[in-house]
Amino acid sequence: MTDFVCGRYTLALDRPLLMGILNVTPDSFSDGGRFNRLDSALAHAERLLEEGADILDIGGESTRPGAPYVSPEEEEARVLPVLERLAALNVPLSLDTRRTSVMRAALQAGAVDLINDVSALEDEGALEMVAGSRVGICLMHKQGNPDNMQHNPQYRDVVEEVGAYLGRRVTLCLEHGIVRERLLGDPGFGFGKTVAHNLLLLQHLADVEQQAGVPLLVGMSRKSMLGAVTGEEVPAERLGASVAAALEAARRGAKVVRVHDVKATRQALQLLAALEQNHR
Ligand code: 7PM
Questions:
Q1: Which residues carry out catalysis?
Q2: Looking at ligand 1, which residue's alpha carbon is closest to its atom 14?
Q3: Which CATH number belongs to the domain containing residue 124 in this structure?
Q4: Chain segment 24-73, per-residue pLDDT in tens
Q5: pLDDT at 28
Q6: Any residues with Cβ below 6 Å from ligand 1, and which?
Q7: Beta strands 17-22 and 9-12: pairing type?
């Protein structure tokens, strides 16, 4: 079974890993605010770990359509103290960022194991920045940018186009001296895709993985595609659909699932593992 090289860690991918999403809430008031932010991030991290998270994903810039602009300085100020504080927890730390400057700061602090980039290292200098390290990398597909990506997404063949894009980004990483064992691919659910596109990607996840040539990470937790399917408008109320989506992705070969609700997802994956190990 393949190992995933991820900064300070080497992770076995013999069962699906759980990446817990850590909120780094914008709390920009006073010094008190900064302490609050750190303390609540630490408390949330501890909860995610108790519930069974294998990796923590920390992001300081919302990639939601229409989200307010966050400067690189502000993004760095949000995530770096959290990464530094969490480094003692002995769990792989993922940084959700698109910016070379934020990657550089986190790498220099030695406080990151995985770069989770929704623009697949397309920022100027990003490839070179991560190439000289040992961090894992998640290359995600998106069409367009957060402000316009849900406007009118179109594909000739979404499965083929997403798979081919990931394959090209993997090749580029290899050409920059990044070994394949450091790479994950991600179809980017909700990033410039209609509900039908998202469903096709889930239905044909094995094809995407094969074209990407690396293990897949998937994130559907609480996303609007699940709102569309269930009619549930409140993201935090989409637990059942989120767990089902993670389970379906794992059944179709996803090696990492990125979720808010670690405990419920862990239980679902434990049932899947029991079924896979049981024989008549
Ligand atoms: C608002 C809307 C806030 C959407 C946050 C989001 C992914 C990711 C995100 C994903 C990887 C969310 C998204 N989604 N990274 N970062 N894959 N690798 O729902 O699907 O968490 S942000």
A1: 223, 258
A2: 219
A3: 3.20.20.20
A4: 866 544 445 566 889 999 999 999 999 999 999 999 887 666 678 889 99
A5: 43
A6: 21, 62-64, 96, 116, 118, 138, 140, 186, 188-189, 217, 219, 223, 258
A7: unpaired
